[in-house]
């Protein structure tokens, strides 16, 4: 796929976009085969190569009357509103936001002078509900003006469901702060994957590639069905994607996540789906340390840093029969598997969430040996 921003060196977010997509998949599959040299790998789950992103994170640059949405490459402001990774509806959304920035007089934050207010525009889309929009500001200075002019934006943009302002006052490379002001009547966005409806709050983590995420969760469901577990733990469960896909009347499911707001989303989704899941806002390692009995199946979906030595040791001690590991970092995945010597990989599959990059999402099923 040809990209002018990449060809000119202005944007390097997709370092392999010049390669054929087949070559990209083969490279990632080869990397995965190095981790599992004796395991016949499943065929990789491909992605669309364009228009697959359901969210955008835009740095706001320029001026209040001539805003630029994109990235800052050294000192160059790079407009990414025409990026081919976004579905076509994003271009219209960006145009409305540029007009809104002009209307409100939101001055983009300037790194060199440390002046200005608007740092980022964070935009998410759900086919089920519409749009979630977040303005990341340095202070509350323009909060009243945004509230005042928001009805005009909503009239132009009827599918704009959730609007918030996030405050990030520090002069650091941090995307968002802790304080969030909800300006719309709705505070959650629904996202449907397969037959499961998930709830997302403004700071919720959610996969950027909905189609591939749906395939990941369905595969986890298919692999789990053959195991027939009676008890499942889903550690690092987030808003409940795996737990909600694996829940059934015959299975006792527990979901553990440190974020209380994510647990609120997961609990609401389970209630509306009519399934009984024990969601708890706890640290995953602390929960495992306090547990007296292991589940039949342990599902883990840790952040990029992986499970870590302490949790791996606890898993070895608890001895769950099976482990379903969803990893966004093959390097830490390989390290964790070395710390889980009692578990033998049975299946592994690549899910290409981010074409044109080195990012690889991997699902691995492991069974405990020797007991």
UniProtKB/TrEMBL annotation:
It comes from the Bacteria. PROSITE patterns: SAM_MT_RNA_M5U (PS51687), TRMA_1 (PS01230). Its EC number is 2.1.1.189. InterPro entries: 23SrRNA_MeTrfase_RlmC (IPR011825), MeTrfase_TrmA_AS (IPR030390), SAM-dependent_MTases_sf (IPR029063), U5_MeTrfase_fam (IPR010280). The keyword S-adenosyl-L-methionine applies. GO terms for biological process: methylation. Pfam families: tRNA_U5-meth_tr (PF05958). S-adenosyl-L-methionine binds at residues 207, 236, 257, 301. Keywords: 4Fe-4S, Iron, Iron-sulfur, Metal-binding, Methyltransferase, rRNA processing, S-adenosyl-L-methionine, Transferase. The keyword Transferase applies. One of its GO terms (molecular function) is methyltransferase activity. It is an enzyme of class 2 (transferase). The active site is at residue 328. Belongs to the class I-like SAM-binding methyltransferase superfamily. RNA M5U methyltransferase family. PANTHER family: RNA M5U METHYLTRANSFERASE, TRNA (URACIL(54)-C(5))-METHYLTRANSFERASE. This is 23S rRNA (uracil(747)-C(5))-methyltransferase RlmC. It comes from Rheinheimera tilapiae. The gene is rlmC.
């Amino acid at each position: 796929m040809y990209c002018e921003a990449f060809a000119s060196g202005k944007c390097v977010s997709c370092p392999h976009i010049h390669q054929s997509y087949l070559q990209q998949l083969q490279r990632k599959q080869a990397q995965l085969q190095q981790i599992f040299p004796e395991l016949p790998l499943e065929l990789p789950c491909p992605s669309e190569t364009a228009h697959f992103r359901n969210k955008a994170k835009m740095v706001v640059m320029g001026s209040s009357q001539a805003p630029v949405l994109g990235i800052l490459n050294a000192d160059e402001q790079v407009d990414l509103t025409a990026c081919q990774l976004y579905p076509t509806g994003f271009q219209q959304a960006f145009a409305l936001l540029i007009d809104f920035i002009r209307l409100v007089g939101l001055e983009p934050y300037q790194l060199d002078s440390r002046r200005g207010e608007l740092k980022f525009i964070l935009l998410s889309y759900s086919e089920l509900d519409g749009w979630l929009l977040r303005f990341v500001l340095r202070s509350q200075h323009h909060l009243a003006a945004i509230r005042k002019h928001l009805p005009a934006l909503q009239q132009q943009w009827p599918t704009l469901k959730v609007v918030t302002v996030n405050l990030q006052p520090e002069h650091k490379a941090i995307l968002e702060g802790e304080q969030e002001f909800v300006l719309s009547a709705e505070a959650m966005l629904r996202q449907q994957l397969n037959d499961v409806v998930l709830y997302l709050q403004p700071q919720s983590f959610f996969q950027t590639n909905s189609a591939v995420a749906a395939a990941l969760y369905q595969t986890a469901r298919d692999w789990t069905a053959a195991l027939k577990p009676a008890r499942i733990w889903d550690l690092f469960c987030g808003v409940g994607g795996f737990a909600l896909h694996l829940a059934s009347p015959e299975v006792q499911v527990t979901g553990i996540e440190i974020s209380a707001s994510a647990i609120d989303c997961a609990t609401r989704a389970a209630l509306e789906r009519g399934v009984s899941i024990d969601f708890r806002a706890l640290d995953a390692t602390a929960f495992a340390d306090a547990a007296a009995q292991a589940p039949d199946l342990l599902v883990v979906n840790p952040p990029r840093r992986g499970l870590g030595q302490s949790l791996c040791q606890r898993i070895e001690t608890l001895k769950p029969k099976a482990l379903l590991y969803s990893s966004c970092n093959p390097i830490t995945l390989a390290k964790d598997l070395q710390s889980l010597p009692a578990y033998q990989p049975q299946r592994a599959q690549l899910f290409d969430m981010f074409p044109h990059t080195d990012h690889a999402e991997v699902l691995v099923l492991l069974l405990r040996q020797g007991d």
